[in-house]
Specification:
By secondary structure, the protein is an alpha+beta fold. It has one domain: Histidine kinase-like ATPase, C-terminal domain (Heat Shock Protein 90, 2-Layer Sandwich), CATH 3.30.565. Helix content is 37%, strand content 26%.
């Protein structure tokens, strides 16, 4: 596997800048020849991840949201990171919730991301921020262009 091409973006944790992240995601996905529908899905997933960081990561303070778009031959990997408050997933879990993110207090944003992307992983710990990693495969017919 060759090293991916990386596009990095840092925006302030202010809701007005979520659109900048969306535009970057759109530009990268378009360059990779994703379908229009896939580009819209990627934009929504990036918006949800950034909005979570804006709303929850820094409390009333303004911090940074870092995005890395790693461009591989057959897929796009997107990481959305903050250095904010983070959370302990164990304290959010409902023992009857199993692995349903909506029921463990992570909200609908994670549910949306999981429905729109091929994979979604989130890592967080109190005081150390959160990292959301998402991937989307390039459609086979387009990957060979």
């Amino acid at each position: 596997m060759t090293e991916p091409i990386k596009v990095e973006l840092t925006v302030p944790s202010i809701s007005d800048y979520v659109g900048v992240a969306r535009l970057t995601a759109s530009g990268v996905a378009n360059r990779m020849k994703f379908t229009h529908e896939d580009i819209e899905d990627i934009k929504i997933a990036v918006s949800e991840a950034c909005t979570n960081a804006v709303q929850y990561a820094y409390g009333d303070n303004i911090g940074k949201v870092n995005l890395t778009f790693s461009i591989y031959d057959t897929y796009l990997e997107i990481q959305v990171r903050d250095q904010g408050l983070g959370f302990n997933i164990e304290t959010k879990k409902d023992p009857n919730a199993a692995s349903d993110p909506e029921k463990i207090g992570l909200g609908l944003g994670i549910v949306f991301m999981k429905s729109l992307m091929d994979t979604v992983d989130y890592q967080s710990s109190e005081g150390n921020g959160t990292v959301v990693t998402m991937t989307k495969k390039v459609p086979v017919a387009r990957a060979s262009l």
